Amino acid sequence: MSKRIHFSTWGRGTRDLEMPAYAMADQYEIDTTASRVANAIARKNGLQVVTLRSDGTALDRKGRPESRHYQTTLGRPCRGGGWTPVAELWFSIPAAS
Predict the structure, then answer these.
(1) What local confidence, expressed as pLDDT, does residue 97 receive?
(2) How many whole angstroms separate alpha carbon 50 and alpha carbon 32?
(3) Would you call 56 exposed, middle or buried from its count of C-beta atoms within 10 A (0-12, 13-18, 19+)?
(4) CA-CA distance, 31 to 40, in Å (whole number)?
(5) Among residues 2, 1, 17, which one has the least CA distance to residue 87?
(6) Domain spans of the chain?
(7) How does DSSP classify residue 40?
(8) Within a 10 A sphere around the Cβ of 79, how many other Cβ atoms?
(9) Reported pTM
(10) What is the DSSP letter of 19?
(11) What contacts 80, CB < 8 A, 6 or more positions away?
(12) For the chain, what percent of residues have pLDDT higher than 70?
């Protein structure tokens, strides 16, 4: 069974990107929720995920996790190898996802 992953984005280069309304996650897939979101954004814009890392957790007033934050760089491959970065963005996913 698949479920929708809702997220918020911000960062450099995001003005020129189209953001999907949500990403999809299959409970039997091995991909992490963060990689599903990063790949959904990249795919929507004809790019590839160059880097993806955790950027911490936002806590509510009672100290419980509210959302998880991630940073990703999206880019295009170069001819001789390597990548040309196009956008660096952060996104947050509600902790319940």
Answers:
(1) 47
(2) 16
(3) exposed
(4) 12
(5) 17
(6) 2-94
(7) H
(8) 5
(9) 0.79
(10) P
(11) none
(12) 85
